[in-house]
Amino acid sequence: MKKIKIGIAVLGCILMMSCGNLGALMSGQGVSNAISSVIGLDKIKVQNLVGTWNYSGPGCAFMSENLLAKAGGEMAAVQIEQKLLPYYQQVGISSNNTVITFKEDGSFSAKVGGTPLMGQYTFDEATQKITLKTLLFSTNCYAKKELGGISVLFEANKLLTILQMASALSGSKDLQTIGELSKNYDGVRIGFDMRK
Q: What are all long-range contacts of 96-102, with beta carbons under 8 Å and residues at least 24 apart?
C-alpha cells in the first residue's frame, strides 16, 4: 500500500513539473482554484451576476472534471491564460476598455476592446449559460465563479467571432494568431476574468 501511495505522489510530482508553472499551482489561489476550474461546480446565482464587471485578465475553464484531469488541472488553465494574455494585448483588450454590465431587467451593455455592444441576456442558473442577444448576433457564454469575481467564458471559436467583430469595428487586423490559438482548446472555454 505504501508503494502505491509513493508511486502516485511521484507521478503527481512528475506531471506537475512536466506542465511547468509549479509556482502558480502551489500558490494558495492555485490550489483553491483547482476544483473550480470546471464550469458549474461552484454556481453563480442570477442576483450575483447583476452589476458591472471589469476585465482583469484572460479566463479559462474546462467543460468537465474528466477534461480537467486529462489536462493536468489548474496548471493547464494557468498556462492557457498566460498564452492568451499577449494575444489579448495585441488586439487591445485591457481593463480600461473591456467591461460588461448585466442589469436586473435582462439587458446588458458591454465594451470589448473599446467596441460597444448592447442587447438582452438570459441566464440559466442550472447550466451557468448566459445567452447574449444583440441586433447583430446572438451567442452563448458561461459564467464561472472566481475568487473575487467571475469569468465570462466562450467556446474558443465563438470568442474569436466576437473578437473579430470588435476588431473589424475598431480597424485592428491582429486576430489571426488568436484564431490559430483557439484551435488547440477543444473542451475548454476561454474568455475574460472579471471583477466588480
A: 98/54, 98/55, 98/192, 99/52, 99/53, 99/54, 99/55, 100/52, 100/53, 100/152, 100/194, 101/51, 101/52, 101/53, 102/49, 102/50, 102/51, 102/53
